[in-house]
Amino acid sequence: MSDLSIELTAPNGRKYTQPTGLFINNEFVKSKSGNKITSINPTDETEITPVYAGGAEDVDVAVSAARKAFKNSSWRDMATSDRGDLMFKLSKLVEEHAETLATIETWDNGKPYSVALNEDVAEVAGTLKYYAGYADKLHGQVIDTNPAKFAYTIREPLGVCGQIIP
Fold it and tell me: Per-residue pLDDT tens for 129-165?
């Protein structure tokens, strides 16, 4: 086991490997500062495990990696049906690991297991399936304005976005 993951056993007995690093550039890494925060079980306030806490420098590294990936032609030039296949594969992985994902969600935030399993995780899988099916159906649209003007829309990505989760 590396120092970027830990073997855990949840209160319901499910065992799994929990990454403790920041997920940047398709890998788990330590934070630049080395600072950690502790995930707490809200039902009894016991410690689950410490995880690396990202700071401004980590955000900069993540945004730089995301911009580099965004500009890489491998995803842009991939057939849209292949993109959909990859997203569908991810939805199947969510379904295959639903019990573990629901366990983690329940343990970390105190949500009832049945809600995490039957609503949250199911919604994640369903959303991924929806967008997998939509991957090869994105197209522009001509807008009827007047005979002297040609106007159209095209949907394309604009750039990098990020999310900081406490």
Answer: 999 999 888 788 888 888 889 898 887 777 777 666 6
SS (H, E, C) the chain: CCCCEEEEECCCCCEEEEECCEEECCEEECCCCCCEEEEECCCCCCEEEEEECCCHHHHHHHHHHHHHHHHCHHHHCCCHHHHHHHHHHHHHHHHHCHHHHHHHHHHHHCCCHHHHHHHHHHHHHHHHHHHHHHCCCCCCEEECCCCCCCEEECCCCCCCCCCCCC
pTM (2 decimals)?
Answer: 0.84
pLDDT in tens, 81-102: 999 999 999 999 999 999 999 9
